[in-house]
Amino acid sequence: MAGRRKASNLERWEVAIVKGLLKTKKYNDQEILAYFTRPNRTINHRAIGEIRAEKKHASIRAASDEDVEDFLASWPNITDQAGLRIPDDELLIKAREAMIAAVHTFNGAGLYFRAEIFIVTVIIAWTYISHAWFKRAGINYIYANARTPQGGDMYWDLSKCLRHNEIPIPTAAKTNLEFLIAIRHEIEHRMTSRIDDTLGSHFQACCMNFNEFLKSEFGTHHSLEKRLPIALQFVSFGAAQRRNLKRLSEPPENLTASIAAFEENLTDAQKADPAYRMRTAFVQLLGNSSAGSDQTVQFIKADTEEGKAINQIFFKEIQKNRHTATAVVDKIHEAGFPRFTTHNHTQLWQRLDGKNPGKGYGCRGDYKGTWVWFDNWIQRVLEHCEANRERYS
């Protein structure tokens, strides 16, 4: 359930304003109370009476007439439809704005380094929302023995926040953030390109996790669904286009190594958790009814008949048979070409540029430095052997 402020939880500056309003003798308790309540924050009506009678907060001085005038002139000072107010909700406002900025930037057209900007900005968003949670829970989130170069307080970084036992971020969501932090460390020290498509599934999971945490801990009225519409595309994807996109989006080796090193310690279940990495299949829908056809995006449960059918389409496209070089040679022997050797195979793929991802003959294996071949490569090798039957029979 979303956390709620306790009744009478007025900030010190608010108590000063209440005293300033009481001093004017223009407002009764109910009128003053209205300035400090809103749908996501309630103040017990007794709080104003206790301040008037000096039963509480006696040590706090009343705000000056000028401060009271400034307060009234800027009231309600609400940021948006979520009902957040500066300055008491500043951390939550910053968290939401940082996440909105990250998504808008990533969805924006014409940017070449969207992933890098996204990672840095969502880490800021998650840091602020973690601080907002700690503040509400009364947990000090300032380093005890560290200061900024100018001598100011140094607040916990996101890694420190994630290690705190009480913050209710799900384990898979923490793993997702630890992954993005590791990638940030990798890209901040060297130039990195072509990583948008590689990390997109992790980014999507990060956004969903943030929104769920925002709603569960601070209230559903803070959710970002209505603020962030779906991103429209200008492209359709045929087989040739997919091959070209894959060829152009091959990530740098240092990034691939960083991802492999991080995921080496994860179980299959952890890697499959949608809170760590969310993967989605898009299938064009041809509906007979106008109501069904007009809906741009439909989410279908995996265990329904429609979901099973989509999964079959998805696996037909992606889950290709994979063969090692030795397995390819064995299959060629079984087809009646016993004199075809591993050396012949190496010469053939080098001559045909078989490991060029754009040709679609194979892909990198699960382990660093390995390569696996698809069924269409075996067919291509068989064609070569048929054309040179006397040599290989």
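Above is the first protein from milestone M3; the second protein from the same milestone is given next.
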Amino acid sequence: MKLRKTGRIAIAGLAVAAALTMTACGGDDKDSDKPAKSTTTSQSTTAEAAADLPPVPTVDELNAQLQRALDPNVPNEEKLEMIQGAEADPNLPTTLTQVYQQSGASIQVVSVAPLGDTISATTNFVINGQTNEVTVPFVAEDGKWKVQQQWACDMLTAASMQSPACPA
């Protein structure tokens, strides 16, 4: 049973790691402060929305940001914008980071697949010497890539934890 709890904790930590990493890569575009021109046609609006998506981060960019994202010394305030819906529970990033740290796991992003206004990150997640492939979904929100709220909530549930950000 202890192994199961460790695995659950590790998976929750993975969610945080990937979420924090991808968001950090998506928010540094200097041109993103310029307002987009509005049009009256739905085709133009759709194209404009696609143009407003943050750039898809590379595997190297995600891995370079990984240590910062998992660092318990990085202020929680910097991590709040990295998880969709975290404003409903300002402690959510810290909780997920602690779960990951306590698990002793490691994570490495191996591929990133853009899917319109979402991206899917495939990761190698190692816990207790075993490597597992875990897919982490991200959504574009406020010009940044954020870990999908439901996925973060699922990770907390797997670690037998709850958050006000997660529907009952």
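Note on the second protein: Strands lie at 106-114, 118-127, 130-141, 144-147.
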